Every structure is written in structure tokens, then in C-alpha cells.
């Protein structure tokens, strides 16, 4: 399935980001509290978000601490919304991957699989203590949950994360195409919209700016990210003086191809910096941008 662009982000996500922005003072107060057992600020944040959703999307029925009827489980959803064509589950937690996985699994089992409607599952994540996980780890688990949800309920369902530290707001949506910033040794910068295109630009630059006389030289630098034979039909091709070079399309197939993290490390060793850009929310007519 083709990746979507920033303009395809679900309209509920825009409203949630607006609401998080307007209610971020509750998150800041929570992070700076002296009594670590006090969660009143999170409750106030939850109430503010639900109020904003009710105002902007009155056609949804929005409920707080929704419990499943007729079941013995006592789990409750922080904010639950439903219309004829869709359900929405919103959970608010610190950046802990165990909470992301645990809550998603229970909500999918108790609510998600009980309805035929598409499901939008949103994990609002706020910066926790120093012992909590990096946002990059959380993003990985958001992606795992998204894969599971689509496999169980279809392509119209999705899992999205929204991260806030009290200042910035980031959207973690693996359905949206990735963007990469490449900084070359000469100071030039290129923005690439996919892993294969990013790798293509990096390897082309390396070939054009170094004395690469044969494929073995290139393979020594970039490992399994390059091949002198075409493996997949959509592999990118570079024509060189020592023959065609093919750049990997698939970065997760163990044994045949390189992992993306390895390619980033290989590139860094030759002073080419690759940074995945994040989707950040901003107020104004264009709410989302790559940073």
C-alpha cells in the first residue's frame, strides 16, 4: 500500500494536536509536580481534550473512562468516540513501551475486535521520567501496533502516536511517507522522501566524489545495501564505469539486504549524515511539517 502524504493525516489528529497545544500547561504542571502520586493534572488534560473534541466533532459520541458493557474486564478507555462509520480510542500515557503495548492489546481485544467499524487508535504520549524510553523506541511500538491493527481490521484502521514534552508536539504516523535529511561532507543538504531514494542519493554522491574503481570498493563501504545484480524488481539502478549498481529497495529482509540502521552507520563512517525527519505540529494554516 502506497504511503500517504502530510495532507492525508486524519482530521481528528489535527484537532487533537490543537487541543494538546491548548492544554499543554496541564502536562507541564504534571511534569513539575512535587507529589509523584498526584495525577490531577493529567485528569484536567483529559477533560480539556474531550471538551475540544466534543466541540469540533459533535457528530461523534465522546465518552471519558469508557468501560465495555457485558464483560468482566474492568479496563477503561481514557477517551472514546464513535460515529456510524468509525470508532476512535484515545489513550494518554507517559513514554513507556510496555504501556503502549499493554493498552493497545487490551483495547483491541475488548473493543476493537467487537465491532466491524474501522478503528482509529491514538496514543497521546507525554515525556516521562529519565527511566522512561526514548520517543524513537515508542515510535517503533506504534508502528508494530499499526501493523497488527491493519492485519486484524483492515487498511482503513490505523494507530497513530502524538508526543508532547510540554513544548513541541510530534505526530508518529507510519502510514505517512518518511522524509530524510542528508547532509554531505561539502555542506550541501538534500531532503529525500523515502529510504530507497535516500540511499540512491548517498551512494551516487559517494561514487561521484571518491575514487571508486570497482564494485568491491563500494561493497566494502556500504555492505549489503548495494549489489551488482538486480535482486528485487523495484531496486534502484546506478550506471557506473564498472557496471550497473543496484540499491536495495527492502531494508528489513534479513540475510539478503541491509538494515536501514546499518546503512545510516555506514554512511556516517564516510561523513554523510542521514537524519529521519519528524512530523511536527504547528499552529496556523499548515498544521504539519517535516523537521
Write out the strand line-up for the largest beta sheet, numbering strands in chain order.
1-2-3-4-5-6-13-14
H/E series: HHEEEHEHEEEEHHEEEHEEE
* CATH architecture assignment of the largest domain: 3-Layer(aba) Sandwich
Q: Count the strands?
A: 14
List low-confidence stretches: none
CATH topology of the largest domain: Restriction Endonuclease
Q: What's the helix count? A: 7
Residue-averaged pLDDT, rounded? Answer: 88
Q: Fraction of residues in helices?
A: 25-40%
Strand content bin:
25-35%
Number of domains: 2
Outline the secondary-structure elements:
Blueprint (H helix, E strand, L loop, with lengths): L10 H21 L8 H17 L4 E7 L8 E8 L2 E9 L2 H14 L8 E8 L8 H19 L4 E7 L4 E4 L7 E4 L5 E4 L2 H15 L5 H8 L3 E2 L8 E5 L2 E5 L12 H10 L3 E4 L2 E3 L6 E3 L1
Parallel strand pairs: 3-4, 4-5
Antiparallel strand pairs: 1-2, 2-3, 5-6, 6-13, 7-8, 7-12, 9-11, 10-11, 13-14
Helix pairs in contact: 1-2, 3-4
Structure description:
The protein has 7 helices and 14 strands. The chain is an alpha+beta fold and 291 residues long. The longest helix is centred in the first third of the chain and has 21 residues, at 11-31. The protein starts with 10 loop residues before the first helix and ends with a strand.
List keywords for this structure.
alpha+beta; Restriction Endonuclease; eight-stranded mixed sheet; elongated
Summarize the structure.
It contains 7 helices and 14 strands.
Amino acid at each position: 500500500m502506497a504511503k500517504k502524504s502530510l495532507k492525508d493525516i486524519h482530521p481528528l489528529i489535527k484537532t487533537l494536536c490543537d487541543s494538546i497545544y491548548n492544554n499543554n500547561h496541564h502536562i507541564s504542571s504534571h511534569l513539575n509536580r512535587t507529589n509523584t502520586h498526584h495525577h490531577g493534572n493529567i485528569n484536567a488534560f483529559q477533560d480539556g481534550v474531550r471538551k475540544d473534541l466534543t466541540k469540533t466533532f459533535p457528530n461523534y459520541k465522546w465518552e471519558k473512562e469508557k468501560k465495555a458493557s457485558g464483560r468482566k474486564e474492568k479496563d477503561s478507555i481514557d477517551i472514546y468516540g464513535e460515529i456510524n462509520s468509525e470508532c476512535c480510542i484515545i489513550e494518554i500515557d507517559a513514554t513507556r513501551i510496555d504501556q503502549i503495548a499493554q493498552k493497545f492489546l487490551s483495547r483491541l481485544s475488548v473493543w476493537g475486535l467487537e465491532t466491524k467499524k474501522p478503528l482509529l487508535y491514538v496514543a497521546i504520549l507525554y515525556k516521562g521520567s529519565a527511566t522512561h524510553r526514548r520517543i524513537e523506541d515508542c515510535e517503533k511500538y506504534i508502528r508494530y501496533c499499526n501493523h497488527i491493527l491493519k492485519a486484524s481490521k483492515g487498511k482503513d484502521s490505523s494507530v497513530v502516536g502524538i508526543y508532547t514534552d510540554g513544548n513541541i508536539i510530534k505526530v508518529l504516523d507510519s502510514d505517512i511517507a518518511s522524509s530524510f535529511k542528508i547532509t554531505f561532507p561539502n555542506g550541501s543538504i538534500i531532503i529525500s522522501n523515502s529510504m530507497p531514494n535516500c540511499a540512491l542519493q548517498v551512494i551516487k554522491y559517494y561514487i561521484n566524489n571518491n575514487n571508486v574503481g570497482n564494485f568491491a570498493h563500494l561493497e566494502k563501504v556500504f555492505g549489503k545495501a548495494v549489489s551488482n545484480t538486480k535482486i528485487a524488481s523495484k531496486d534502484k539502478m546506478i550506471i557506473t564505469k564498472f557496471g550497473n549498481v543496484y540499491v536495495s529497495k527492502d531494508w528489513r529482509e534479513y540475510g539478503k539486504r541491509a538494515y536501514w540502521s546499518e546503512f545510516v552507520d555506514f554512511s556516517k563512517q564516510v561523513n554523510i549524515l542521514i537524519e529521519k525527519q519528524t512530523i511536527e505540529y504547528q499552529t496556523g494554516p499548515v498544521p504539519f511539517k517535516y523537521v
